[in-house]
Amino acid sequence: MKKYNFNAGPSMLPREVIEATAAQCLDFNGSGLSLMEISHRAKDFQPVVDESVALFKELLQIPEGYSVIFLGGGASLEFCMIPYNFLEKKAAYLNTGVWAKKAMKEAKLFGEVVEVASSAESTYTYIPKDYTIPADADYFHITSNNTIYGTEIRKDLDSPVPVIADMSSDIFSRPIDVSKYGMIYGGAQKNLAMAGVTFVIVKDELLGKVSRTIPTMLDYRTHIDKGSMFNTPPVVPIYSALETLRWIKRNGGVEAMDKRAKQRAEIVYGEIDRNKLFKGTANVEDRSLMNLCFVMSDEYKELEQDFLNFAMKERGMVGIKGHRSVGGFRASCYNAQTIEGCEALVACMKEFEAKH
Ligand SMILES: *Cc1c(COP(=O)(O)O)cnc(C)c1O
């Protein structure tokens, strides 16, 4: 049975990316050595980092004055590095879900945290829009895509202070105006690469302003100065990111990724809205194009486990169980997800409807 991968993260990558990375793990650039067993300082590896940075800049049209670095520790380590590097007195956070809350928790260790708005009272089914960002905040932190709840801020916000965005689960899915951000970061394992590397795009002039001493490894300047080579970087994950970036470029760049995301969402949300058995969980105007969350309609609640069994065991739909905090189903449709995969999911939902 053909498998369709709807995992939320780590998640589906283009087959070409996996094959190219696997080949380099066996024999890196014809050297007779594996990518896993060469020095990150080997002259062959530097071009991997250089090309990855260059493709970040090209694909996202990153203006002058920003650095791109690759780190370890996941997006979760950034939750602490961000206030360490930028929070002097006060920071503003938009609370749109579990990841936003975790980011706020770390920031509170460093200074005052203003929660400008929250949708916690409705289990994060919408993106708050009516709020004021304090003009004296050091930065304003958002989670552009809420992987667990299936809501997304699919536009670049205006703010009186630098915007810092966790784009773990929607980076490279649409064109963004990087000049509107102070920093963009994320774990790579949703839309960019295998797990193990974190990307950071940071505006250089914002660094070095806090009065506290920053431990060397937690200071962004350390990694910028050494071109992500201060210590041993995650070599294989960075290589897989490079292959994904090449794939995005070959396939029309972020404009094309955006178009495909909209096509996929139309197919899947279209069926969620049409099929009497199911209903979406997120506010329609805030629906994520990356994580499409839905549940059984109230009248069919008792069929949840039956649908999961049917979809997963009989139709090859992998990873469509919703996050444990939300229940129901989640179809994650990152860049690598195919139209065919979405159509197969829809066919499976229709078939299940016909049986009931
Ligand atoms: C997955 C995820 C994280 C956590 O990433 P790690 O790399 O596992 O630390 C943070 N934020 C968002 C939006 C995510 O989807």
Q: What can you tell me about this protein's structure?
A:
With about 350 residues, the protein is α/β, with parallel strands linked by helices. It is about 35% helix and about 15% strand. It has nine helices and 14 strands. It has helices spanning about 15-25, 45-60, 75-85, 100-105, 220-225, 235-250, 255-275, 305-315, 340-355, and strands at about 5, 65-70, 90-95, 110-120, 140-145, 145, 150, 165, 185, 200-205, 280, 290-295, 315-320, 330. A seven-stranded mixed β-sheet has the order 2-10-9-8-5-3-4, with helices on both faces. A three-stranded antiparallel β-sheet has the order 11-12-14, with helices on one face. A hairpin with a 4-residue loop joins strand 6 (about 145) and strand 7 (about 150). It starts with a strand and ends with a helix. The relative contact order is 0.17. The model has no long low-confidence stretch (mean pLDDT about 95). Bound molecules: pyridoxal-5'-phosphate.
